[in-house]
Amino acid sequence: MNKFSSYLKKKKPLAKEIVEKLSKDFSFVSVLGTDVKGKNYSVSGPITGISPSSITECGFVIRVYNEGVYSEYSFNELEKNKIDDIVIEVKSLANTKSSVDIVNCNKIIEESLSKKFKRNQKGDILNDEEIINKLKAEQEYAKSLNDKIINVGLAYENVEISKMYISNEKDLEQYYTWINPRVNIVVKDGNNIKYAYDGFGSNDSNECFNKLHKMVKDCADLAIELLNSELPVPGKYTIIADPSITGLIAHEAFGHGLEMDMFVKERAKSVEYMNKYVASKKVSMHDGAKSAFSAASYFFDDEGALASDTKIIDKGVLIGGICDSVSASILNYHPTGNGRRESYKRKAYTRMTNTFFEKGKYTLDEMIKSVDYGYYISTTNNGMEDPKNWGIQCTALYGREIKEGKFTGKIISPVVMSGYVIDLLESISMVSKDNFEVIGSGSCGKGYKEWVRVSDGGASIKAEVRIG
Amino acid sequence: MSRINVILKALKNKGVNKYLIKEEIVESSQCFYVLQKLETKRVVETLEEVVTVYKEFEDEKGKYLGSSNFKIEHKMSIKELESAIDDALYAASFVKNPCYELVKGEKRKKVSTKCDEEIPFEVLDKIANIYINESKENVKFNSLELFYNKYLTHLINSEGVNYTKIERIINIEAIPSYKSKDLKTELYRMFKYNELDYEKISKDSKSAIDDVLIRAEAQNLKMKKQINVILKDEFIKEMFWEVISSYDYYSVFTHSNIHSIGDKVVENPQCNLNLSLNPLNKADFFDSDGVLLKGQLIIENGILKAYYGNNRFAQYLNIKPTGNLNKIKINNGKLKENDLKKEPYIELVDLSGLQVDLFADYLGGEVRLAKYFDGEKIMPISGFSFSISLKEALNSISFSKETANINGFEGPKLALIKKVNVLS
Asked: Under an 8 A CB cutoff, do B44 and A75 touch?
């Protein structure tokens, strides 16, 4: 724990040798090496589990540029005696002919940089036994809260990420850690079964277990409340979004549409709206590995571009996008440190990192009091982007009814919100100065694949949406 | 010495007598096209093993079987492997799970899907040309990603399981896009083929183009009403996976199942639901525990007949494991497509994602493209949402006589649900 991968360190001279050998034939060569270690600890009913984290990976990807096309070779066996075979494989791939025309990409231009980055895990370093015992104690606590609780699932995923990036210009290393605790509680009353869940992220083990205890209680209370939930009556409503729903809206509404590989593919409607109003003047939005400290706060991306903070919307005006290195080479733009891979086995795309709406000037209390009739919507379930047509679908676990500025006690579940992005963003009439959070427990796909860890959030917003 | 043999030797050295090893070799060739031009070519070649070690222990309350696993992603020495096994055994000693037996192996077996000796990049080139040839001046595939994947999965356990399967899977992600002076629109399409079938690929690429042309003509219709809604094969598949999700052994073990065996699941004489789970393809003959797979009837004439799931939870429930089955098969109906479409309806073509929540009793979603029949004419519409109670949907559902066979689903081509709320 708290050490850059010794395996990658050992393989670094070999990666440099590959770059040197391939540079005789190709004007751009890079090697990304990854060693992501971690465990997922879980308890669910009487069952316990300790298994590798789902994002565990260890391998390499070589990228070369050849006559307007990029070629990549992903592999996980890098030995001195295999280097010549690897070089032959990459050359053969790069020289494979296609009957289809080529894009004619430009070559990625890099500035020289050699640097090592490190962010250690905070808090106690816990062993397997200590983590399982803490989870079991929380499970017992949850079960004691209500007789209607029939299953309590808890998980604690702890990962250490080591990556190195080698090219003719760059020699980078980074090490950082992240922890994701998660809770899932199922309750039953006769034939009525409901569930509630929650999760968060941190790089501090002590903070994780302190927060988890409160989350278990909140989750159990919510699950019991949901036994009395109703399906929403389809219609248009005023909503106040909690930070997770604000984040989901930011992510699905604008985040995907501002991934600039979508510009190259002519898939983004946002191109037509650059430097124009796309939202209420109360809205400002960011994305970047450096824009907040959360699940996607790395130091450099999977193409060796340094992390940054991109302001996407400034007081309602669309001002910028996020960009990977290949798309930047085609668009004559600059990489923003958003080139990410699901793993070394997959292609890099422009991807979001930490996406959120800035704080506003109202208190949450003032916002709730301002609602004649509507819902306070909480807890992200899922969402889907539509970058060209700007449709939006965001699904939340539940909503609390507000009448004349007060909660009535009525609860609806699930809440499927949909509409047209601009209508939704223009309808934002209040943004909170409190209730701000960037939640580092999410994963995001591009379409239905290429899953990467992301965070999103922001302050509460008041908006008009279609539910049902 | 092969990697598997090195692992077996290390397990023996550490005295591990219960284990499971899954070895996976992946060979993947990939092409990425932007605006129908080649941007990136990729090759992936990896060999990985996941080793699970089991540890038996007991206390005054009974016997337990702990387990933990680790991944091997590159060559390791015997010493490194032994150290990884020690770590896993240590972890397993805190995994105090009720006892169960590992799957006992039958005769060593190896099955492969039909796999001609082709050059992957030539296959991808041919598929790209099929797609490009379908495009027209104002309708193109702005993004096209092609994957030719070969997976070899070898499973060994301490009880004699020794099975291998080789699968070749073609994955395609395509974004058919329409562009005119006044309008730009697109759809998202993802296809998975267990066998290389150029005819099917050609048909799917054509339908992707046809659908985006329809979306280009779609109107945002103002409406708030109840109407019959027609689902196509992929939505029927998603809906019924959710319907049966609480009948798996884990849900039953944790008392989270909505019905018990013998319960009426669907109160609907019109569809007389028969649903079974089956292996995905010829090579899909064992699951990740080594359970040999065969079809299992889950619902017969609307009544729950069997639960399903993996080896461990089957033993906890004292029933025979079905293994993890990945293909859902549903009976077709009596009504022809034309009969389902006699009254006004909305036929869903493309959604932002079908939302089905069994416990909240909800079926719905945002519709990106649909065909609306008002009783006289059919018109493409978009930009609305639909919702209905899942129970009500099941109690009014009718299946078409025409059938469909797509990845992970065999059953009716269409299903009609009555009185669905739509709102724009």
From this structure: yes
Q: Which of A229, A391, A449 sits opposite B352 (nearest CB)?
A: A391
Running DSSP on this structure, what letter comes out for residue A145?
Answer: T
Give the count of beta carbons closer than 10 Å to the beta carbon of residue A115: 12
Element housing A452 (H / E):
strand A449-458
| Location of structure tokens 């449709």 | A391
Quote the minimal CA–CA distance from B256 to chain A in Å. 7
pLDDT for B118: 83
**In chain B, what is the straight-line distance between the N-terminal and C-terminal CA atoms, in Å?**
65
Amino acid at A459: A
Taking a contact as any Cβ pair under 8 Å apart, which residues of chain A between 159 and 198 contact chain B?
186, 188, 191, 193-195
Task: Give the residue among B237, B253, B245 at the shortest CA–CA distance from B359.
Answer: B245
State whether B73 and A59 contact (CB < 8 Å).
Answer: yes
Q: How far is Cα B239 from Cα B233, in angstroms, rounded to an integer?
A: 10
At position B399, the amino acid (one-letter code) is: F
CB contact under 8 A, B73 and A57: yes
- Total length of chain B: 424
pLDDT of residue B222: 84
* A81 close contact with B: CB closer than 8 A: no
Q: Which residues of A278-300 are buried (b: 16+ CB within 10 A; e: fewer)?
A: bbbebbbbbbbbbbbbbbbbbbb
Position A409, amino acid: G
Out of B91, B142, B255, closest to residue A266 by CB: B142
Confidence of residue B17 (pLDDT cuts 50, 70, 90): very high
Tell me whether residues B383 and A414 touch, CB distance under 8 A: no
Per-residue confidence at A438, pLDDT binned at 50, 70, 90? very high
What's the gap in Å between the CA of B234 and the closest CA on chain A?
14
Contact check, Cβ <8 Å, B94/A49: no
Angle at A390 between CA A413 and CA A454, to 5 degrees: 65
Residue type, A463: A
What would the mean pLDDT of B327-344 be, rounded to a whole number? 95
Nearest Cα to Cα of residue B275 among B313, B304, B317:
B304
* Per-window interface: A 116-135 vs B, CB < 8 A: 128-129, 132-133
Contact A289, A353 (CB under 8 A): yes
Task: Tell me how many residue pairs between chain A and chain B have CB atoms under 8 A apart.
Answer: 233
pLDDT-derived band of residue B115, with 50, 70 and 90 as boundaries?
low
Prediction ipTM score: 0.95
The answer to whether A382 faces chain B, any CB pair under 8 Å, is yes
Residue B373 has pLDDT above 70, yes or no: yes
Cα–Cα distance for residue pair B17/A48, rounded to 1 Å:
21
Tell the residue number behind the tokens 């009403």, with chain if given. Answer: B225
- H helices of A72-183, in order, are 83-94, 128-143
Per-position b or e across A346-384, b if 16+ CB within 10 A of its CB: bbbbbbbbbbbbbbbebebeebbebbeebbbbbbbbbbb
User: pLDDT per residue over A88-97, tens digit each?
Assistant: 999 999 999 9
Interface test mutation site (partner A, options B22, B31, B37, B122, max chain A beta carbons within 10 A): B37
Q: Measuring CA to CA, which residue among A5, A73, A4, A53 is closest to residue A443? A: A53
Contacts of B42 in chain A (CB under 8 A): 71-74, 93, 347
Beta strand B378-381 with B384-388 is unpaired
Q: Mark yes or no for CB contact A58/B177 under 8 Å.
A: no
pLDDT (tens digit per residue) in A70-117: 999 999 999 999 999 999 999 999 999 999 999 999 999 999 999 999
Q: Is A143 part of the contact surface with chain B (CB cutoff 8 Å)?
A: no
Nearest residue of A to residue B254 by CA position? Answer: A151
pLDDT in tens, A365-382: 999 999 999 999 999 999
